[in-house]
Here is the input.
Amino acid sequence: MLKCSLELVIVHQKPKRFDYLCLKIFLMLEIKRFGFKDKEHFNICSAIRTQVFVGEQKVDPALEYDHEEESQFYLLYFNGAPIATARWRETVKGIKLERFAMLPEFRNKGLGSELLKEVLNDVQRFDKKIYLHSQLKAVSYYEREGFIKKGEIFTEAGIEHYRMELNLSE
Here is the structure.
């Protein structure tokens, strides 16, 4: 389990003056790793995935819950509350990162990058190709994180995706 604190400093400058107001906010992030047999954490993970994929994106639940027993899971906690999840599994093509889901109110705040970094840190030891299927709206995010698009757009669970691979040459 990874625990870390982030310090966010907000600086405000008043017009025509050089008085600064600094506000420090300490945020506690915790990442929990677990397997399918850990039902307590898996149920939390499932609730986030159901809200994001089934509720928001209208993915068929039968498509959302597959390959569970062979996957390794993660939960990201923010100040003690679970806010995001992810998983990875080994396939014949390499290590596939999947099911990255963040609760809506926590998106676009840099928190997902912490989760992705932790997952990548764990899977790079396998020395295999690392890939994922990115929804179109997340492609630029994954590109910033070092992934490159491979192939053409395809539809999975009714949503357009690109296959992306981690560029290990950088």
Notes: DSSP finds four helices and eight strands in the chain. The mean pLDDT is 86. The beta strands are 2-13, 20-35, 72-78, 81-91, 94-102, 130-135, 147-156, 159-166. The helical segments are 39-56, 61-64, 111-123, 139-144.
